[in-house]
Amino acid sequence: MAGFLEKLERACRTNQSLLCVGLDPVPERMPVPGIYEFNRQIIDATHDLVCAYKPNLAFYEAQGLEGLRALEKTLAAIPSHIPVIGDAKRGDIGPTAVAYAKAMYEVWGFDAATVNPYLGRDAVEPFLAYRDRGVFLVCRTSNPGAREFQDLISSPPFGGDPRPLYEWVALKAMTWNEAGNVGLVAGATYPDELTALRELCPDMPFLIPGLGAQGGDLERSVRNGADGRGLGAVLNVSRQVLYASADPGKFAAAARAVAQDIRGQMVQVLREMEAPWLSS
Amino acid sequence: MAGFLEKLERACRTNQSLLCVGLDPVPERMPVPGIYEFNRQIIDATHDLVCAYKPNLAFYEAQGLEGLRALEKTLAAIPSHIPVIGDAKRGDIGPTAVAYAKAMYEVWGFDAATVNPYLGRDAVEPFLAYRDRGVFLVCRTSNPGAREFQDLISSPPFGGDPRPLYEWVALKAMTWNEAGNVGLVAGATYPDELTALRELCPDMPFLIPGLGAQGGDLERSVRNGADGRGLGAVLNVSRQVLYASADPGKFAAAARAVAQDIRGQMVQVLREMEAPWLSS
Question: Structural domain tally of chain B?
Fold first, then answer.
């Protein structure tokens, strides 16, 4: 994963963390007004505890141009050594995919982006072409509806072993990974599927949402999601950190305390796994 | 499809057209500078020939906040009786899907939106909840990579008839269509798949991209894509209309001429099909 993967692993080592904080501002839940002000305080309080930040563009788009201006300012407030994953799950074809990749990597300047694989390789290629950026393909999501299509037992029309659709996505992702910049999105709420994906793709970085508010189990996510070195797993938590307290004067400290606690639990599991990159 | 479908069919009848013009501005190809100025001239020249406009958000996002401001102005320049389909192919879960639906229908105010089905029903539900707006589920796309996942022969884990994945999407779409506001995206470049989908979903509106620059056949798209009344097919053309001429003084007239010609061909086919809604 070239540039992005290097940056990610450096941040993991520096901050001794696999925790990614999802910057998903919801005005009704924010203890202070102003998306930028809220994000800035969260970033100030957590930037030495995370390996990445992950703004989901939906929350900014829902606030119109003002929300997108707040995203612009937020990105400028993230220390440059922390990678930023733009979670937008884009997916379109031809010149449209080229425009989306440009928006994510050049306009917003994200280090990595999430991409929906349903439209096939040519829809993903414009993202892959940014060889120093990461491309996390949405593979097995953390929601109940994930079962509906992603688990269909599927085989190519010309024959082949039947497998769940999400495993086909993972297998294709490996063949698309010429620049080493491809990863998978695999939800923490389905630990068995996470294990299956880690077996199929031993070296690929996984973006793992679904911890915290969604109920995914932290220990199993680290054990099933990390690669052989105890790296390659970006474990995202959003609401549990962002909305740790509704008190305008204390929410940032509360967010920090929660992030610290989650990181501590991760390190604990990684120690049991004897991950060689942890400081003693 | 409640409010949206009514509006769409009224525009089809008023303008005697199934043509949708995709407003996909690419600065390098535009004969005049300024996305808004370009779009405005295209709209002025074609608004009495179309049943809908379809801006694809990628092209605006690729130009940053300025591009999105141009989208805002563009939407205000479209006559209010012409429905506007926001082509963004969003797909995410829980509160994120709620935020995307809000962005598409409330912030931008689109009459309909395209949505990626890969994440399952709960990812689509927040869109469906806007009962007076349209939800076009990406089903069988017009690109070569469409075959990769959409054509996998799939069956539910607990058993069931194997079918291509895109047919499962169509079947699910029918069960999700409680408010009558669901449609499908089905590419013009695969006429057999279009026919299969029309057989599965006889009454559902189809958004059909892939004509023009992508090479889809117009006559077959009308015949295979329209419903029993000769309606329910929104046939999108983008580049062929937008970039009909590179001459700054003539491109709008050229766009009009191309749109008129395409509409004429559509009407010709519809007459042969004896579509009852055509004026004599």
Answer: 1
Of B58, B124, B145, the CB nearest to A100: B58
Amino acid at B183: G
Q: Return the percentage of chain A with pLDDT > 70, whole number.
A: 99
Q: Identify the residue among B60, B121, B137, B152 best suited for mutation to test binding to A, counting A beta carbons within 10 A and taking the highest.
A: B152
Q: List the CATH number of the domain containing A217.
A: 3.20.20.70
pLDDT of B1 higher than 90: no
Find the CB nearest A142 among B93, B144, B214: B93
In 3D, which of B222, B147, B216 has the Cα closest to residue B187? B216
CA distances from B253 to B43, B197, B242, B247 (A): 11, 36, 11, 10
Task: With CB atoms and an 8 Å threshold, state whether B165 touches A164.
Answer: no
Contact indicator for A102, A113 with CB cutoff of 8 Å? no
User: pLDDT for B29-74, tens place per residue?
Assistant: 999 999 999 999 999 999 999 999 999 999 999 999 999 999 999 9
The phi, psi pair for A55, rounded to 5°, reads: -75, 130
Residue A277 in any domain: the answer is no
In this structure, what token pair is assigned to residue B212? Answer: 């023009």
Cα end-to-end distance, chain B, whole Å: 27
In a domain, B199, yes or no: yes
Does the residue A261 lie in any domain? Answer: yes
**Does residue B163 form part of some domain?**
yes
Q: What is the pTM of this model?
A: 0.97
Q: Do B117 and A119 touch (CB under 8 A)?
A: no
Q: Helix axis angle, B94-102 relative to B121-128, nearest 10°?
A: 30
Say yes or no to pLDDT of A57 above 50.
yes
Residue pLDDT, tens place only, B185-235: 999 999 999 999 999 999 999 999 999 878 889 999 999 999 999 999 999
